[in-house]
Amino acid sequence: MSRNLRMKAKQISSLLPGMARRGAMISCLLVCAAAMPVAMAEEPANPDSKPLKDDSAKASPEAQPVKDSSEAAGKDSRRVLDDGKQANNNSRETEGDAIPVEDNSGKANPNSGKVNDSSQAAGNDSRRVDDSDMNRASPDASRKTDRSVKADPRAAEVQDGNMDKANPASRPATASDRAKQATPPPVAPEPTNFEKETAVREAVTAAEESVRLSKLEIKQPAEARAIIDGILAADGPVSRVEQQRGAELADEALHSGDGVPDEMRAETEAYLRDRLRGQLAPDRKLPKFFRDRGDDDVVGLVPSDESPRFLHSGRRYVHFHSRTSIPSVLLANAALGYVSIYTPAEANRLYTPDEADLAVLPQEYRGGDARVLSYPVSEKSMISTNDITFQRGSTQFADAHSYEMARILSAAMKDNDFAGIRFVIEGHASAEGTFEENQILSQQRAEAIARELVRNGLEAERVIPVGFGASEARHPPTAPEAMRSMDRRVAIFRIEEPGLAR
């Protein structure tokens, strides 16, 4: 065995104890390696030869240190100037041999010299700059004047002509400027006569329906007065739509006075006042204000010697087919003691009506659930007139003369002699149509007159509207229109009863 072979074997022998612990597979590999004496084509280096210089990146520990310019330099290499943003951990500090560099980036090296940073995200140690954008300015930047409409509260106040986006601290625009910018509201079209009439009918129906149940069980005077106000008050829902409907005729009566001179007006007012007192002399001349009905010499004021059908011993009687059919304003007056309500049997003990008079009433108005409403009146105070007329089938006054008559009548009723006195306003109809329809329409017309009196200054609780329908009509449905029109009249009485609460 040659010298080289013996050296190899010796080296392998020295390794066998450690390799035996690694297992049988490693042992086999070593035996195979020892059995290859002639596998090398080239003789290995002599152990006594000089070490070679290794220029590779993985140099031998004994190799001479080399200059490494990469960022991952060897630990033994010479320290170099690092211009990178993230300097090598082994590079020299600024106070050493390295030359400090100027870093103009937004993330300067902590050891580099401070620079002028003009960006909005300046370093904490950079010089403060003037930032004109107040929305993103550095907290330490100098404040600038902002003239936008969204100015900083500390900015100088500006004049903003746009009131929608004005700065709260700016000077408000003038009223004329606002008027120019304002959009005029749309103008609602004027309602038609049909729409006005429909609105009044709906208001009347709604007023009655709102108290349909409570009117039968009124317990307190305040409840009764609330019902009266709801039907008759000048600012009530029914009165408001009535004024809109009759505004044109009422305005004509107010401004033109229907051609009535002041002397004629004063004469008519005095005549009505004396009539309501019951002190009218038989030969008192009728004022020219009242209508002249033409060839028959029938004037607007019906002669008082025509005694009404249902007037007996100073009391008036009006029949209804049930208690629920009595209008709410009359039930409210009954609750206050101004009128009385009887059954037919109770009413018969007070007076004995003529059979001919009762014959005009339908059977349901004479027995069963029928009711009779009664109130005391001064017979001498009666005013029966055709000077307040209505449009056909409506509660709308027919002309300006009717408005003027209501105005003069209210002035007479407000005389100091009548302080605390109540009046009844009766509506009467001609005989055409059904009895119930005529009674409802005449009641609504009486209430319309009462509201006109209230709008002219009379208290709502001092007027009691009552609808008689055709129960006192003097002419049949087949009579000429001129005769039937006499039955469409208004009767007014002064209520009078000793001890009656007023």
From TrEMBL:
<dbReference type="Pfam" id="PF00691">
    <property type="entry name" value="OmpA"/>
</dbReference>
<feature type="compositionally biased region" description="Basic and acidic residues">
    <location>
        <begin position="125"/>
        <end position="134"/>
    </location>
</feature>
<protein>
    <submittedName>
        <fullName>OmpA family protein</fullName>
    </submittedName>
</protein>
<feature type="signal peptide">
    <location>
        <begin position="1"/>
        <end position="41"/>
    </location>
</feature>
<dbReference type="InterPro" id="IPR006665">
    <property type="entry name" value="OmpA-like"/>
</dbReference>
<feature type="compositionally biased region" description="Polar residues">
    <location>
        <begin position="106"/>
        <end position="123"/>
    </location>
</feature>
<dbReference type="InterPro" id="IPR050330">
    <property type="entry name" value="Bact_OuterMem_StrucFunc"/>
</dbReference>
<feature type="domain" description="OmpA-like">
    <location>
        <begin position="377"/>
        <end position="498"/>
    </location>
</feature>
<dbReference type="InterPro" id="IPR036737">
    <property type="entry name" value="OmpA-like_sf"/>
</dbReference>
<feature type="compositionally biased region" description="Basic and acidic residues">
    <location>
        <begin position="68"/>
        <end position="85"/>
    </location>
</feature>
<dbReference type="GO" id="GO:0016020">
    <property type="term" value="C:membrane"/>
</dbReference>
<feature type="region of interest" description="Disordered">
    <location>
        <begin position="43"/>
        <end position="198"/>
    </location>
</feature>
<keyword id="KW-0732">Signal</keyword>
<keyword id="KW-0472">Membrane</keyword>
<feature type="compositionally biased region" description="Basic and acidic residues">
    <location>
        <begin position="141"/>
        <end position="157"/>
    </location>
</feature>
